[in-house]
Amino acid sequence: MKLAITGPTSGIGAVAFSQLTPYFDEIFLVARNESKANKLIQSLSPNDQKKVTFIYCDLTDMDTVVSAAKSIKEKTAILDVLINNAGGIFQNKEITKDGFEMSLAANHLGHFLLTHHLLPLLLASPSPKVINVSSEAHRAAKVDFNDLNYEHKKFSSFLSYANVKLFNILFTKSLSEKFGEKGLRAFALHPGVVKTNFGNETSGLFGFFWKLSAPFMITAEEGAKTTIYLAKTKIDSLKNGYYFKKSRPVKPSSEANSKKMRDRLWKESEILLKKWL
Ligand SMILES: NC(=O)c1ccc[n+]([C@@H]2O[C@H](COP(=O)([O-])OP(=O)(O)OC[C@H]3O[C@@H](n4cnc5c(N)ncnc54)[C@H](OP(=O)(O)O)[C@@H]3O)[C@@H](O)[C@H]2O)c1
After folding, report:
1. Nearest residue by C-alpha to atom 25 in ligand 1
2. Which of 140, 142, 191, 255 is the most exposed place for a label (fewest CB within 10 A)?
3. What CATH number is given to the structural domain containing 228?
4. Whole-angstrom Cα distance, residue 173 to residue 185?
5. DSSP code at position 91
6. Is the model's pLDDT at 212 over the cut of 90?
7. Is residue 201's pLDDT more than 90?
8. What is residue 200's predicted lDDT score, i.e. its pLDDT?
């Protein structure tokens, strides 16, 4: 069994990576910080270390996403599980070198592109899975598909994060809808409110409440549980495309279930990423 995971260098992803390594024969550690990745690899047993390959990828730089997928394709013809875990909230509006708002690129577009290029490998597996780490924040989303890069409206750090976490669920549902018959399973999840590096650089009202809630947050070990459960467990095909919390399927917002929204997201993502698809 072969696994690829993004954002394994910190928090939830680091725990998921370390705990899942014994269950897989080969793991692709998809990350932007090679020295953090190497430290993580060195923390494994010598036997597990041999299974892991570092793949450079900055999800906000689409050329590197394409070359990351290419490197994985050069090393394997099959991929069983892809965990799209990396992400974050950004305090200020930043535009990537490709012209995308940073949280849109890091949380959605990079993963959309990576998944697209890895699909042939996933569909070559007898039971492929894509796991997308979303958030309960998706319930606060207010999406304007005509201004995904905040060219016209005022940027809000929390709202842009809520929108992209909604996109994670919409993308999950689209994957199950488009490729379910070919065997692909896709799941989204909320990890809990977890004490990681997430949100540490935010200020304003969100930053204030985030820091205030720190004593009540769960550990990364707790926060990684649903990701690990979904990666290891055979889930009933009737639950394909579902959103999970505490290792159980839960109902996401009504927007997250909207076919109109997910079809529009797919179309807009393809338009934005045309050059790299
Ligand atoms: N913590 C929470 O309470 C919470 C709640 C709901 C959902 N989530 C979601 O859980 C996921 C993991 O977050 P976390 O809490 O574990 O946060 P974290 O400790 O900040 O870890 C985020 C990971 O994403 C990677 N990453 C960020 N931007 C990237 C980019 N442009 N390219 C490649 N990798 C990038 C980071 O890499 P570096 O190490 O190089 O920075 C790191 O490995 C995220 O999708 C987050 O939205 C978290």
Report:
1. 7
2. 142
3. 3.40.50.720
4. 10
5. S
6. no
7. no
8. 80
Cα torsion for 26, 30, 33, 38, to the nearest 10°?
0
Task: Give the model's pLDDT for residue 103.
Answer: 97
pLDDT in tens, 28-41: 999 999 999 999 99
Q: pLDDT tier at 55 (50, 70, 90 boundaries)?
A: very high
Residue 208 has pLDDT above 80, yes or no: no
Question: Please, how many CA atoms are within 13 Å of residue 159, restricted to the half-sphere of its CB?
Answer: 11
Question: Which uninterrupted H or E stretch holds 63?
Answer: helix 62-75
> From residue 145, how far is each of 34, 92, 141, 272 by CA, in Å?
35, 20, 12, 12
The Cα–Cα gap between 244 and 228 comes to 12
Q: Residue 199 sits in which domain range? A: 2-276
The predicted structure's pLDDT at residue 242 = 98
Average pLDDT, the chain: 96
Residue whose CA is closest, atom 8 of ligand 1?
A: 135
Q: For residue 103, give the nearest of 235, 202, 242 by alpha carbon.
A: 202
Pocket test for ligand 1, best of 15, 30, 32 (most atoms within 8 A of CB): 32
Distance CA 149, CA 213 (A): 30
Residue of 63, 65, 61 whose CA lies nearest to 94? 61
* C-alpha count within 13 angstroms, C-beta hemisphere, residue 218: 14
The total number of structural domains that make up the chain: 1
What is the Å distance from ligand 1's center to 235 Cα?
25
Cβ of 196 less than 6 Å from ligand 1: yes
More confident position, 148 or 200: 148
- Determine whether the shortest distance from the Cβ of 11 to ligand 1 is under 6 A: yes
| CA pair distance 114, 108, nearest whole angstrom | 10
